[in-house]
Amino acid sequence: QVQLVESGGGLVQPGGSLRLSCVASGSISSIAVMGWYRQAPGKERRWVTNINKSARTIYTDSVKGRFTISQDNAKNTVYLQMNSLKPEDTAVYYCYADSAGVRVTRDWGHGTQVTVSS
User: How many Å apart are CA 91 and CA 102, to the nearest integer?
Assistant: First the structure.
């Protein structure tokens, strides 16, 4: 099992930036992919981006060119740099990790709130 702890959320004005961090612990060697989902008030949780062990990244269309996911393997940490933030980016952001084994398992962090408002 993998434990995930997010940090870096907060209140930011439109056009501003934030960097989220997600630190993994536990069965780290089994992690194949890490990424982020977000859940806006009253809406379902939606996938945002992920990165695999080869550092290949993919993004949902609404954040392309504004968000960047990266990883620091020495620190067991994944980052989400968010630039040019918009009010519609307001959500709780959840880090996740998919681990390969007999079957693929997914672990979640508890989430960090991002609010974009003037």
Answer: 33
